[in-house]
Amino acid sequence: MRIRKIATAGAVALTTAVASLTFATQAQAAQACPDYYACLWYNSDWEGAIYVSADPVADYTGKKFVTSAYTNGSNGAGLGVKNNSASAYNADPDYRFRVYYNSNFNGTYAYQTFSPLSGGNFTATMKNQNASGQWIGW
């Protein structure tokens, strides 16, 4: 009986710890991405270097990731953003942010849209296939 109680308590503690890590990561993403901006990360789960943008970008060529103090941000720093992003966060409270597979906001093949004040990992189709991004409803 005592072993079962210890095992149950351990499982509850582990579940709570994992849930806390998930929420901490979202909070870190929101903290790293300034209000009204869109941010892309080199790694999944808002990890690694970050790219911060306040304007629509028709082509991510020439844009670079920088180190982020909030999200374990050295991995990918200095690398190009185009076709290198694994996650994103939209810090705009009013507009959706859309990332396109092709340059010039061309979504005929694929795109991924992030609701206001939300983000996540890119889908398998979009991961490392980001070429442009803009707010929808501007």
Overall description:
- The chain is an alpha+beta fold and 138 residues long.
- It has one domain: Crystallins (Gamma-B Crystallin, domain 1).
- The protein is 22% helix and 22% strand.
- It has 1 helix and 7 strands.
- A 4-stranded antiparallel β-sheet has the order 2-1-3-6, covered by helices on one side. A 3-stranded antiparallel β-sheet has the order 5-4-7, with no helix packed on it.
- β1 and β2 form a beta hairpin.
- The N terminus is likely disordered.
CATH topology: Gamma-B Crystallin, domain 1
* Secondary structure category: alpha+beta
Distance between the termini: 61 Å
Helix content: 10-25%
Strands, total number: 7
Summarize the helix and strand pattern as letters.
HEEEEEEE
Short description:
The protein is an alpha+beta fold and 138 residues long. 22% of the residues lie in helices and 22% in strands.
Question: How are the elements arranged and paired?
Answer:
Blueprint: H1 2-32, E1 38-41, E2 50-53, E3 87-90, E4 96-100, E5 111-114, E6 118-121, E7 132-136
Antiparallel strand pairs: 1-2, 1-3, 3-6, 4-5, 4-7
Which descriptors would you attach to this protein?
three-stranded antiparallel beta sheet; 7 strands; 22% helix; Gamma-B Crystallin, domain 1; 138 residues; 22% strand
